[in-house]
Amino acid sequence: MSLFTDPRWGEALGHLPDYLGNHVRVSVTALALGLLVSLPLAIISRHHPVMRGALLGLASIVQTVPGLALLALFYPLLLALAALSLSWFGFGFSAFGFLPAVLALALYSMLPVLRNTITGLQGVDAAILEAAQGVGMTPRQSLFTVELPLALPVMMAGIRTAAVWVIGTATLSTPIGQTSLGNYIFAGLQTQNWVFVLFGCLAAAVLALAVDQLLALIEIGLRNRSRLRTALGGVGIAALVAATLVPTMTRSQASYVVGAKTFTEQYVLSALIAQRLKAAGLFATTREGLGSNVIFEALAKNDIDVYVDYSGTLWANQFQRSDTRPRQELLSELEAMLAKQNITLLGELGFENAYALVMPRKRAEQLGIRNIADLASRAANLSIAGDYEFFSRPEWASLRKVYGLSFRAQRQMQPDFMYAAAASGEVDVIAGYTSDGLIAKYDLVVLGDPRRAIPPYDAMVLLAPKHADDQALRAALQPLLGRIDIATMREANLRAAGNDATSSPDAVAQWLWEKVGNK
Amino acid sequence: MPTTPLIAYAHVGKTFDGGRVVAVDDVSLEVAEGEFLAIVGGSGSGKTTLLRLTNRLIEADGGTVTVEGEDVRNVDPIPLRRRIGYVFQSGGLFPHLSVAGNVGITPKLLGMPTAEISARVDELLDLVRLDRAQYLDRLPHELSGGQRQRVGVARALAAKPRIVLMDEPFGALDPLTRDALGDDFRELHRKLGLTTVMITHDMTEAILLADRIAVMRGGRLLAQGTPAELSKSDDPYVGELLRTPRRQAERLGALLPRDGAA
Question: Structure pTM?
Answer without folding.
Answer: 0.75
